[in-house]
Amino acid sequence: xxxxxxxxxxxxxxxxxxxxxxxxxxxxxxxxxxxxxxxxxxxxxxxxxxxxxxxxxxxxxxxxxxxxxxxxxxxxxxxxxxxxxxxxxxxxxxxxxxxxxxxxxxxxxxxxxxxxxxxxxxxxxxxxxxxxxxxxxxxxxxxxxxxxxxxxxxxxxxxxxxxxxxxxxxxxxxxxxxxxxxxxxxxxxxxxxxxxxxxxxxxxxxxxxxxxxxxxxxxxxxxxxxxxxxxxxxxxxxxxxxxxxxxxxxxxxxxxxxxxxxxxxxxxxxxxxxxxxxxxxxxxxxxxxxxxxxxxxxxxxxxxxxxxxxxxxxxxxxxxxxxxxxxxxxxxxxxxxxxxxxxxxxxxxxxxxxxxxxxxxxxxxxxxxxxxxxxxxxxxxxxxxxxxxxxxxxxxxxxxxxxxxxxxxxxxxxxxxxxxxxxxxxxxxxxxxxxxxxxxxxxxxxxxxxxxxxxxxxxxxxxxxxxxxxxxxxxxxxxxxxxxxxxxxxxxxx
Length: 494
Known about the structure:
Layout: H1 7-15, E1 42-48, H2 67-74, E2 77-83, H3 89-98, H4 102-105, H5 121-125, E3 131-136, E4 152-154, H6 175-182, H7 195-199, H8 207-221, E5 227-232, H9 269-282, H10 286-316, E6 323-329, H11 348-351, E7 352-353, E8 355-358, E9 367-374, H12 378-385, H13 400-404, E10 413-417, E11 430-434, E12 439-444, E13 450-453, H14 471-488
Helix pairs in contact: 8-10
């Protein structure tokens, strides 16, 4: 088994800075003995939907029951400040899978399909030796149909039939649907099972356990071949309840420090309207939010159990020493911060996500990376780890130097928002920069702009944009946003 590193040791290592545990190591896979061919590295990519960063000990939450994620973090490079490209499902998923900005791929809002001529990681790798599979939520078009170079496709969602492309059979149902039928369940919503129905099943019949079983079967079947396996859990996405609703005591839940932030008139009107809607939907009292967070944590624990089972299978099959393991989420959720229960906002809780990378050469030792990073860098990083180069021009940069423990100059992080089909978001463009010196500027074309000093105000409770005291900061960061837009051919007017 891998040696375990305690959380104390993990953060002691982080205090060593960029020259920490993995410094100087060659992340290339170990050289083969004479006469033996080097094994190609495997990739196990696990991600969730709507999981904010502070849902495991590595990000400061020691109350939530996520022992398997905590163990994985203790063996991984943990990116402390990892940001999405856009804080909502489809746009950021397109960036994670293809390495392009949402405004470049065209996936600027939910339910826009990823164009077939845009290549995902496996297609970019283009190595016929690899067995490839995608399991779980896709949300990039034609949900239940195999595509983008994946040989095996295991689907769990039937709510996107109206968005299927021309010629797709809308009467077909997901693999999970047929699994439930095989358990003698009857659809509760016409010919489909609703998400609410699925989450109310016994835990062994819920989506995480279903994906766990299919993933472990794939690992056993392809244990002697290089593989790329993506597993995407829906949880802890809404409806925010499940079989582990009583796993955490609401009285043990700490409310977010910015729970009571009133969102003054100088904050975007759309955020204030969203807050009103959230209070109507979920309730706005401390009790309401504690109860909601406790159930949200229960969904994370549910995923944690399945992640543990998959990682144990990887270990038992002798595959762990040659497998890159990634764990992240497509975006976060406010979950009571600013009394919002939302994604689609530029606040840290929605825009930051967990991001763990267990690299075999780290030999089970974890390390915290404090540099801000972006999901736009995911594909270039994985391509380098898989010893491949892409013929496609990708805007991101490989994070392998950070994984090695090298000192890397901190970079600006950019986040975008484009008009949505949802109420109040129809006509809004926002472009955001998070700078290495702790400033965050959000430029908005039709609503209020925001400026936060994250070092002094990590909860983003004081918008300084109109304070009259930081014109030089605004000017400097605005110029950087405009330069980034020019480089990436982003035509939004902000």
